[in-house]
Amino acid sequence: MMIEINRFMTLEQVRAAYGLPESLAVKILALLTVAVVQDDGTLLYLESEVDHVIAEFVSRQRLAEGRANPPAKGRPGRRIETLEIAIYANELRRKGVIWKHVLKACREKWPDDDRVDNEDQIRKTWDRHFGPKHRESD
Fold first, then answer.
1. pTM exceeding the 0.70 threshold for the entire prediction
2. Contact 28, 57 (CB under 8 A)
3. pLDDT digit string (tens) for 100-129?
4. DSSP letters along 40-53, please?
5. Residue 43: which residues within 8 A CB-CB, separation 6 or more?
6. Which residues of 18-107 form beta strands (DSSP E)?
7. Angle at 40 between CA 34 and CA 43, to 5 degrees
């Protein structure tokens, strides 16, 4: 059996213990329920309740930030990471270079890169960025 030790904390103790800046403290303390009011009017809060409210507040803030800035669709980084290869391949293709030589040039430019292993991989990378669906007219 586990026993949780709960202590009462004043407003100043909560701010000091959790290092809350004034702007954040106002928001969080508005959500706290007062556990006890002393004779002199001092408000006391339960430490476990403070922990719970802060955790919930942070969780809601992160969720709101995630909804405001959703991640890009598709595999993370795929378009950005391969764009430089696609642009380089496109420049060579516009000059009339065949795919075999495009692969060779890409291997020379990026010798230890997994993204330039074979000709088909280069073609697919180029096609994602400059393929038929991206052309204005055929």
1. no
2. yes
3. 999 999 999 988 888 888 999 999 989 888
4. T--EEEEHHHHHHH
5. 10, 11, 34, 36, 37
6. 36-37, 43-46
7. 15
